[in-house]
Amino acid sequence: MKKIILLSFISLIVYATFFTEKARLDREVKRLCAIDGGIKVYETVKLSSERFDQYGQISIPYKENVKPEDEYYYDSFTVYLINGNPELRQYRSQIYQRSDGRLLGDSTSYSRVGGDMPGPWQPSSFMCPANEGFNYLMKQIFIKN
Known about the structure:
Blueprint: H1 2-36, E1 38-41, E2 45-47, E3 72-82, E4 87-97, E5 103-113, E6 125-128, H2 134-141, E7 142-144
Parallel strand pairs: 2-7
Antiparallel strand pairs: 1-5, 3-4, 4-5, 5-6
């Protein structure tokens, strides 16, 4: 009987430790998304249909791989707001016009990763807003002419 009570007590502590922090960070992800999450398009660009591939996307190099003939480039980075288990992350993607360095659009999203009971499985995650990131940003900036 003592073993059952002890096991129940330990399970309660593990549950309280892991799942309350996970829920708190999920609420924080939602709060941050409401503040500045999402896609912001500052300028759209009309391009001929030949510039788009079969999936309706154009090829844009990462900022460190830009060649003189490239008209646009992107930058993306992750900011770790809270390290450890669980983690809170901010993801940013930005598309620029190379000739003058003008920012065409920006995508910001947040996620919580981890906070689960330890084990051999992949950690859970929660991310918002949905439909964010580089590909969605590209689709809103570059329009077929």
